[in-house]
Amino acid sequence: MAPPLPAPPQSRGFAEESLSPGVTVVRGGRSYLLASRDWAWGVWDQQTWSWVRWFEGERTRDRAWLLWDRLENHGGISFWRRATPLWITLHVILGFVGMGFVIAMLGYALAVGTGHDPESIGTHGVPVAIAWFSAFGGWLAFVYLRKPLGVRIRVLAAATIVGVLAWLLSAA
Fold first, then answer.
1. Residue 144 burial (CB < 10 Å; 0-12/13-18/19+)?
2. pLDDT tens per residue across span 48-106
3. pLDDT tens string 36-54
4. Looking at the structure, do residues 52 and 22 belong to the same domain, yes or no?
5. Is residue 114 located within the same domain as residue 143?
6. DSSP string covering 38-74, please?
7. Would 34 disulfide with which of 16, 27, 61, 147, CB 3.0-4.6 Å?
8. Are 162 and 87 part of one and the same domain?
9. Residue 21 is part of which domain span?
10. 157 and 84, same structural domain?
């Protein structure tokens, strides 16, 4: 049976002194502490005075370290959403090529499904440009918008709908 999780501190004193007995602070940062207790690891939030997450089982140290690093050094942002030159370049390519392909295929299937001539699809410049830029803009907003996942998914879905409708208009 696993030992009980450490209790929150009783005082607002120095963090190392206030964590419960048996818990060792391994790494301290401005906002979070990485702590261990026997074979379990946890991340402590110094502003809310509560545990963010306590890891038990396999690879606990690695999982706790990655969470602590993401929270402490990157504001809780996943590595693939960080605004570094490499990731920005990759997301620009994914937006134009990847999402552009998805929107083009959905728009093409919808246009053919509604009885439009397949050879006339994509021949008008403005709707096609709107479709590609909605794919690009929707993907970049999904990646770099600092909102909850549900909001970001709705933004991506709205941009996809605009792109598919623009692609459908290009067949008219």
1. middle
2. 777 777 777 777 777 887 777 777 765 656 666 667 788 888 888 888 888 888 888 88
3. 777 788 877 777 777 777 7
4. yes
5. yes
6. TTEEEEEETTTTEEEEEE-STTHHHHHHHHHHHHHHH
7. 27
8. yes
9. 15-76
10. yes
